[in-house]
Amino acid sequence: MVASGFDSDRGILLTGATGFLGGEVLARQLERRDRPVYLLVRARTANEARARLRRTLISLLGRAEPWSQRVTAIPADLTTPGLGLTPERRRWVAERTSQIVHCAASVSFTLDLRESRRINVAGTSRLLDLAALCSHHGRFDCFTHISTAYVAGTHSGRFGEGDLDLGQDFRNPYERSKFEAEALVRRRASSLPVQVLRPSIVVGDSRTGWTPAFNVLYWPLRAFARGSYPAIPADPAAPVDVVPVDYVADAVLALAGRPGTTFHLTAGDRASTVGELIDLACDHLGRPAPRVIPPALYRRTIHPVLVRTGDESRRRALRRSEVFFPYFSVATAYGNTRARQALAPAGIEAPDLRSYFPKLIDFAAAASWGRQPVERRHAASALAPVPA
């Protein structure tokens, strides 16, 4: 049996707390709420789960106490039947959970579809089954599924908070698997109180630039900073919808627990553009603007030359970042009217990228673009100027 001081209290079950967004949600739950928190942690034993929880708390909050007194770490695995929980442990969890916030997912663009589905679709299905068991054992308020605005796939035009299947195709297995997972959540709405939150591209904290996850926007920026791009396949007018993790986590905390709703946690009408992003990067890094060419022309003429010429490090950087190039010619606008209206009373809104872009780049440089990780608690000092 898992030890806990909240045996009679019903609390929130959180997945993905050892990850980027999930960790930010956990920190806010502990700092701003007083409910018990139950974490499904990928681990083989209860001791291993507690050790991972302790490391996570220290990294996020600077210390494990007193936070660990309110959190129970439960060893689990979303990719195995029954989440890897024994019947006794499943029942123990179900009796104590009144809300689930499902943040865990693979965000890799390079996994094949089978593996992406194993994590994102099958894992969500198992969490929904657990939610049904929670409902059976008592009052269950809401299953909040953290999806992505990119379930819109290749849809051209405005994609609203009420939209899902508009006949779109998808750029990669990540998008497709998240679309399928959200469709699964919606199918369970007739029997469970469910909710969907859709962030767009999540980047570092707007105040410090902190992130442990240097993907999507970061790969192209890193390659550009190193002079790896003589040309970029993009549409300068294409929107780049970017939101900082602090905004997303604040919004999750404020909006979670409203069944029957779907909210876009996006920049929406305040989204930047590829052209503006290039200008910001050039200004901050002091580099000349790369040539911007149509994606089809790049693929047909420039790409074959680049992969055959230059040093190996440049070719490697190019290969790793090309998976993100399709996001520089997106033709989708992610409407967020409902979210803005719901968040306005709490004063929560997505800041303009221009206001915090320098912090993103400066922190990335301080962390060597992920090669020298900086813990959240040390993020502000990582950007502090070195005394002369």
Could you outline the blueprint of secondary structure elements for this entry?
Elements: E1 11-15, H1 20-32, E2 37-42, H2 46-61, E3 71-76, H3 87-96, E4 97-102, H4 113-137, E5 142-146, E6 157-159, H5 173-187, E7 194-199, E8 201-203, H6 218-225, E9 231-233, E10 239-240, E11 242-244, H7 245-255, E12 262-265, E13 272-273, H8 274-285, E14 291-293, H9 295-306, H10 312-322, E15 332-334, H11 337-343, H12 353-366, H13 379-382
Parallel strand pairs: 1-2, 1-4, 2-3, 4-5, 5-7, 6-15, 7-12, 8-11, 9-14
Antiparallel strand pairs: 10-13
Helix pairs in contact: 1-7, 3-4, 4-5
3D architecture notes:
The structure is a single chain. By secondary structure, this protein is α/β, with parallel strands linked by helices. The protein has a domain at 11-206 and 242-268 and 332-351: Rossmann fold. Helix content is 41%, strand content 15%. The chain has 13 helices and 15 strands. It has helices at residues 20-32, 46-61, 87-96, 113-137, 173-187, 218-225, 245-255, 274-285, 295-306, 312-322, 337-343, 353-366, 379-382, and strands at residues 11-15, 37-42, 71-76, 97-102, 142-146, 157-159, 194-199, 201-203, 231-233, 239-240, 242-244, 262-265, 272-273, 291-293, 332-334. Strands 3-2-1-4-5-7-12 form a 7-stranded parallel sheet, sandwiched between helices. A two-stranded parallel ribbon has the order 6-15.
